[in-house]
Description:
This protein is an alpha/beta fold. The protein is 37% helix and 21% strand. It has nine helices and ten strands. It has helices spanning 19-22, 25-33, 42-52, 74-84, 105-114, 126-134, 151-168, 181-191, 216-220, and strands at 5-9, 36-39, 62-65, 89-92, 117-120, 141-146, 171-175, 197-202, 210-215, 232-236. The chain has a five-stranded parallel β-sheet with strand order 3-2-4-1-5, sandwiched between helices. A five-stranded mixed β-sheet has the order 6-7-10-8-9, with helices on both faces. Helix 7 (151-168) links the parallel strand 6 and strand 7.
Amino acid sequence: MAYGTLYLIPCPISDETAPWEVLPAANREVMDALDYFIVENTRSARRFLSKTGVARPIDTLEFRELNEHTAAGQEVEELVKPLLDGRSAGVISEAGVPGVADPGALVVEACHRRGIRVVPLVGPSSIILAVMASGLNGQSFAFNGYLPVKPPERAKAIRFFERRALTEGQSQLFIEAPYRNVKLMEQLVQTLAPETRLTVAVDLTAPGERIETHAAGEWRRRPLPELNKRPAIFIIG
């Protein structure tokens, strides 16, 4: 029996964005054909599929969760097992694209190891959108995930990535839990050298989207954007 296919299904970055505004029609055709979904959160995945108007009744679909609590190994192998029996699956993350800063990478790795075809579908990535709109180096950039939470360690990390950005010319991207954005922004502005550029991209694809790039010295002279509990990407360059 031929193996199934693992489809990586993007979803809108913002809850305020309708799926049809940012996703191609071809994605809908794939979702209509699937009845098995590996998701970060069942409730939000069901809501997303309902908004897209998939052909099958939501109650007839099977959802199995893959999130930060899923252990690599047997748990992931169980998620892959239906594909070995010829059943295709769709991976849906909480926002954006699966597998990037996302636990979906675990099931993707398992599929590659088993020789199962993996197909990424087109959709919005906050990382790429932020780089596109930053005006910083898009030829060489690195996504570094989360910085340390404790201020002394975070300051050390900021200086490390600043040196890399300035000496190697490589844009340095990172994110933070939305409720800690304000403290991170304040520390960035105070820690970076005045001439170092900092991009802040907030609420990408949502009505309140705001993307600004200024030198740290300029940021110190202006009111900082309202970042509390808003998804954001930060870039040093």
